[in-house]
What does this fold into?
Amino acid sequence: GAGVSQTPSNKVTEKGKYVELRCDPISGHTALYWYRQSLGQGPEFLIYFQGTGAADDSGLPNDRFFAVRPEGSVSTLKIQRTERGDSAVYLCASSLSARGAGAYEQYFGPGTRLTVT
Amino acid sequence: RKEVEQDPGPFNVPEGATVAFNCTYSNSASQSFFWYRQDCRKEPKLLMSVYSSGNEDGRFTAQLNRASQYISLLIRDSKLSDSATYLCNQGGKLIFGQGTELSVKP
It folds into this structure.
């Protein structure tokens, strides 16, 4: 079946602009995760959804970052007033609903490479 | 101490070698652990899940030592195609290690 998809695959934007990154999880997966990854580092947790609600948003670095999942499927990560330090690969993953975040295997999308100039 | 810490690497080994690297964790309550493999400029892909003392899948063996709070990944008979970064994930905590890079040479 189809895996996790993310769009766009690459996004170049100017400092100060607004961007939206989209994630379409595996059908039937109720848990959805956003991470960002910089070169040479492991994925850094941003936010986790269980269904439509954000179960844990403790990883969002500041209030410029926001994510939604209005119908419990597709999710959008929104970044306002982008800064050069936001440049990274943004990864989305999904998993079966579980007894707590991360208790099941996560399946990752190909990521969106964001470059802020 | 970081919650999940991995051997920094890189590990450079010849084809056919056996290589092992470790991942230490700080949360003793975790019941599940995962190893992911990540190729250059690609997304992480699940390699192995560990829910009890260990797991084996072909040339790959993961072992969990709860007393010392670490999980290891052993790769036997290394292939060139095993070259990648290996990420450790502590289930229940959305935290990944920084990754261990493995390079298998002919």
The longest strand of chain B covers residues 19-25. Chain B touches chain A at residues 4, 6, 31-32, 34, 42-46, 49, 87, 89-99 (CB under 8 Å). The CA atoms of residues 9 and 92 of chain B lie 26 Å apart.
